[in-house]
Amino acid sequence: MLKIVDIHTYYGDSYVLQGVSLEVAKGTVVALLGRNGVGKSTLIRSIVGFTPARRGAILFNGQDITRMDAYKIIRLGMGLVPQGRRIFPSLTVKENLAVAEHGSCDQRWDFAKIYALFPRLKERCDQRAKTLSGGEQQMLAIARALISNPLFLLMDEPTEGLAPVLVREMGDAILRLKEEGLSIFLVEQNLSFARKYADYVHLMSKGLIVYSSTPEQLWEDQEAKHRYLGV
Predict the structure, then answer these.
(1) What is the tens place of the pLDDT at every residue in 33-73?
(2) How remote is the C-alpha of 58 from its chain's centroid?
(3) Are strands 183-188 and 29-33 parallel, antiparallel or unpaired?
(4) N or C: which end of the chain has fewer CB within 10 A?
């Protein structure tokens, strides 16, 4: 579904991604782990077109999207759950979803299915988003991405700031999305979460992929965990 080949991305003169390559197969969950400031969110921004790569290639479902406009990438079936949620605080839950809804003849995600996945959003459908709890806002951010009818989901730090019980709910939602056939690229700092829900993991350091393995292999590799994650 996603193939990244030797991409190099800059912020002005700052050289951030220095030759990143990875793949996400259809129907799998791939996690990218690393400390703050190593380039994880920049990779997300390059994939979705906010900060295009200067060199290299990004292929989505076989199509080159390397320097494509973000809205065109979304229309191809890419969904984004951004870091910090970025919901519309003054709109209701229902209105946040309506803004992003992308109806089609093969609509897989509608309001009924969203509310089945996140029953609390149905209970609060007429409530302004700014009054939701942090966990509910994260559910809304995921729901807003889903209602655009994606084939592939980018999730940037979905467990950030959540209580353990809500982290488990996020994990359960990811498993259900995988069962629906979605491919998911997950940027995280929580190794325990990635170990439980990802099929494959990559570690990033200083703009490079420095380690790739199954979650269990990484969990057993004390040197890599200490060196690149500080655990």
Answers:
(1) 999 889 999 999 999 999 999 999 999 999 999 999 999 99
(2) 16
(3) parallel
(4) C
Q: Where are the domains of the chain?
A: 1-77+152-166+182-231, 85-150
- If one counts every other C-beta atom within 10 angstroms of the C-beta of residue 38, the result is 21
- Helix and strand totals (H; E) in the chain: 10, 10
Express each pLDDT in 208-218 by its tens digit. 999 999 999 99
Q: For residue 60, count other CB atoms closer than 10 A to its CB.
A: 22
Q: How many whole angstroms separate alpha carbon 127 and alpha carbon 97?
A: 12
Contact between 55 and 10 (Cβ < 8 Å): no
Three-state SS sequence of 83-122: CCCCCCCCCEHHHHHHHHCCCCCCCCCCHHHHHHHCHHHH
Q: What's the CA gap between 30 and 100, in Å, rounded?
A: 25
Q: Which CATH superfamily is 1-77+152-166+182-231 part of? A: P-loop containing nucleotide triphosphate hydrolases (3.40.50.300)
